[in-house]
Amino acid sequence: MPAAAAARVAPWVEELCKLGHKVSVFTSSSVLDHDGSVVKSYFQVPDNKASLGKRFFQEILLGLDLGIRILMSKKSTRLCFITSPPFFMACICAFFAKLSNIPYVFDVRDRYPRVLTDLGVIKTTSLFCKLLGGLESWVYKNALQLTTVTHGLLQELKLEFTNLNIFLVRNGFDEEIFTDNILNFPKASAFTVVYHGRLGRFYKAKIT
User: Fold this and answer.
1) How far apart are CA 73 and CA 42, in angstroms?
2) Nearest by Cα to 37 from 75, 3, 10
3) In-domain check, residue 163
4) Quick check: is 24 in a domain?
5) What is the pLDDT of residues 143-163, one digit of tens each?
6) In this structure, is residue 207 part of a structural domain?
7) With bands split at pLDDT 50, 70 and 90, how would you rate the model's confidence at 181?
8) Which domain holds residue 133?
9) Nearest residue to 129 (alpha-carbon basis) of 108, 115, 113
10) pTM, to two decimals
11) How many domains does the chain have?
12) How many angstroms separate the CA atoms of 33 and 194, rounded?
């Protein structure tokens, strides 16, 4: 499916299968074409155009459904890879993995609750923000390992969680599309900024 989490997880699945592991992907009902290794939830991925309240409710439903599936597969599962966001869905999956005594690797693509405070949705001094920070800390500290996508996030996590195993796993690219002649092409004279993200519609800054 055309989503950031799916694009990041797909190469992991391919490499794990090459190493001889049996991999099952637990995902939302949004997936259209799939084979027997994909286990679809009854619920869709949170709607990017929905209100924050509706998105939160959708994440909870999806997380509970996937978490129960993790619990039901505990006898045949040796390890879970959980990618976030969606943050609340991922936290629920981490809770069920812990409940099932299945070690999990948690992939951090955005920091919560910081995203919500940056957007002005919640205040850093609020009780809700402190509760979310405690939830984030619990999920990270109970993970077998943490992975993240940028060097900046890696350094930030290492400073905040000094005793955890944290590794940088950058997003890859298709070498058949981005060939050497394209990668080494001289830069255009105009300076261009591109922002990609599900929360992009909340940012109202203009670049001139």
Assistant:
1) 17
2) 10
3) yes
4) yes
5) 999 999 888 899 999 999 989
6) no
7) confident
8) 4-202
9) 113
10) 0.80
11) 1
12) 30
